[in-house]
Amino acid sequence: AAALTGAPGSVGQVREVAGRLMRCAKQRGTAVILVGHVTKEGSLAGPRVLEHLVDCVLSFEGERERTYRTLRALKNRFGSTNEAGVFEMRDEGLVEVEDASARFVAEATRAPGSVVLCAMEGSRPLLVEVQALVAPTELVPPRRMANGVDRNRLALVLAVLARHAGIAIGSADVFVSVAGGVRVDEPGADLAVALAVASAARGVVLGSGRAPLAAFGELGLTGELRHAAHPDRRLAEARKFGLGPVLHPGEGVWNLRSALRQAMPDSSADRRAA
Question: Where does the pLDDT of residue 3 fall: very low under 50, low under 70, confident under 90, or very high at 90 and above?
Fold first, then answer.
């Protein structure tokens, strides 16, 4: 686009270059991949006109110290944007992880603050471990760190725990992380996060035998549990790896108090929440 007067990276340059690449792709019947970078907020850098010109916008996510990478579709004119793929970096390059749940469940441990989340990546069930750490601090205000879950959802979960479960941790640091470097963006993770934080705060191990506790469900502001999408697929995935029973909305679990009662029947946290 040397004929244009705009500076490289300007709106005019980006629109013209992308337009010519699109015409070339249609004439030759080939796919064109444009590689860019994202800002600290997670959005595409540069003018947003590029997103409107292309047919598909894919985001490649992952942490530097982890081998797992997640490919998500932010825009897709020819399919669903709710699908995601999990890949692993090996010596021979990126390799698709066909059964990611098996990897994450095998690495899960039964310890205070550990809960297995039955999540959904589009139409694909995925089991991931949610870990929480609650530690005393002298910092004001205390830290709230979220890795792999939305920080605003974490703030909501902590508020519901304090108001409706009697687990007030306003003077403690709270760290929540999804093991494996996977990011979960769905309200169905609320219950697993709440149970992990409660378990860490009380030092109680959840689950029976060697299997950690599995859970899913959305938390409301009044402490009620709401149904998450595709519960049958989540439960089937949990049974596939010997996890059960799974705490989820229904069958006597309709709010956070009843969930805590089943998860920690002998803990002081349950008596306070009852």
Answer: low
